[in-house]
Amino acid sequence: MKLAKWAQNAKPSFVREILKFTQMPDVISFAGGMPAPELFPVEEMTEVMMQAMKESGRYVMQYAPTEGDPMLRQVLAQRLVADHNPATADDILLVNGSQHALDLIAKAFIDPGDVVLVETPTYLGALQAFRPYYPNIIAVPTDAEGMVPEHLEALLAQHQPKFVYVMPTFHNPRGTTMGLERRKQIVALCKAADVPVIEDDPYGELRYRGERLPHLRELWDQAIYLGTFSKIMCPGIRLGWIVAPPSILNAVKLGIQATALNISPLTQRIAALLMKRPTFDQHLDKLRKFYGERMHVMLDCLKTFPEGTTWSEADGGLFIWVTLPAGVLAMDLVPRALERKVAFVPGEPFYAAEGGESCMRLNFSNSTPDQIREGMGRLREAIATLMPVKK
Hints:
By secondary structure, the chain is of the alpha/beta class. Helix content is 43%, strand content 13%.
């Protein structure tokens, strides 16, 4: 029995593998991008689930349109427009989470050997979604704000890529945000080259400080926008969305029809009813309050780390990107940290090629402030064991 080449060559997700260790007693995990379960809207979701069954039980138990539940698409469009993100219900396609969206985008665009451009580093889930289609993934050099325009311009001219993939707001893994002028430059370059730009925005609603910045679709209506309910409701609902021009949505829709037929009508209706409640914005405010506090606690803890440690100053999202002191490798740190029952994700899996050996991604959303302080103390001790002895 011989599997497809991609299955033979694919490597397990480092995040998924390390999450096995987080099930151990007393392990404090900064590894996965997991929301805090104590903040899930359990009672409200139970209520709207019952409402959905009582009001529309026969509809939500049946096959449904591939595009998604009309009610949810309409509610979502209204919310996007309120956030200055131009969209109508017809511009939206509902999917099984943003990871599903990335796979569908790859399926619609990539033929073997096609070039796609990503950031350095980039979301490792995107790399996993793209690679089974055999693209040539090229990493665009990145500074503190994201892709460097001069490098992007040169690579666009050299390779004529199928698309450019970016995460401008609360980047995963770096936690950083692309400024307004940089967004305009990236969009202008993609528009001039007639190359689609994909904005992946899982965390846009989770801003804890600073001012809102425009979505790329506000700057160019041909930009593709990906969103998810995993971080603002719960991951278990497995719902996300794609906003794109009609020709792209039609291609993506064919991908759904070939593999999933349609997305769960029940979970879509639950999400629609929950978003229509006036308490939904209160729920988001609660997330921002708790996650913002946890972010600041972790940032304060980093100030006590060994000399030479640097980190990103996040304004939202779920992650902080840390660069370790010279000579300390993140892969060497993993077992030292696990011995002390603390987990994190090293930087290397986030690179399309090489890089990230001295970096690590830390998640702050899934630990209480006290757990963060304890876990960061353990991590600091683990780093100290790898520091060169001063003579």
